[in-house]
Amino acid sequence: MQLKAKKLNKDAKLPTHGHPGDASIDFYSIDKVVFPPFGQQRVPTGVAVEIPEGHVGLIWDKSSISFNFGLKVMGGVIDAGFRGELVMNLFNTRNEEVVLEKGQKVAQMLIQKFEHCDILEVDELSETVRGEGREGSTGLF
């Protein structure tokens, strides 16, 4: 499979795989972005991609960014029909300012196939062992 990527800004860095065989694709910040304590910011990448039909791009945390800086991805489903700039939405979980420098890895995308489903309204759903059990439905220990 190929992922077409377009630079929307001359300073943008195309997404990369960190290592041969890695599942995800790294994206880079095109600007320096300052996150206030417990603040949310958008991080532009300067890149647009063409995700193949029947696939979706799922945006995930970079482990180094979440562990070292406390930044979490907020949202992150990129549909195949979207052709705009990928702008990562991150939240600072710490009570201190965090700075991402221009050119720094910011998030990663996993491309996955998906099944499209038609929504069918029904009066009843089938029974299961779990039923309506929520958190802790299998016990605490």
Low-confidence stretches: none
CATH superfamily placement = Deoxyuridine triphosphatase (dUTPase)
User: What is the correct CATH architecture?
Assistant: Distorted Sandwich
Oligomerization = single chain
Describe the structure in brief.
This protein has 141 residues and is mainly beta. The chain has one helix at 63-69, and strands at residues 4-7, 24-28, 33-35, 40-44, 47-50, 55-60, 71-73, 77-79, 87-92, 98-100, 105-113.
What would you note in describing this structure?
- The protein is mostly beta strands and 141 residues long.
- The chain has a single domain, classed as Deoxyuridine 5'-Triphosphate Nucleotidohydrolase, Chain A.
- It has one helix and eleven strands, in the order ββββββαβββββ.
- The longest helix has 7 residues, at 63-69.
- The mean pLDDT is 94.
Task: Sum up the structure in keywords.
141 residues, mainly beta, Deoxyuridine 5'-Triphosphate Nucleotidohydrolase, Chain A, 3-stranded antiparallel β-sheet, 1 helix, 11 strands, globular
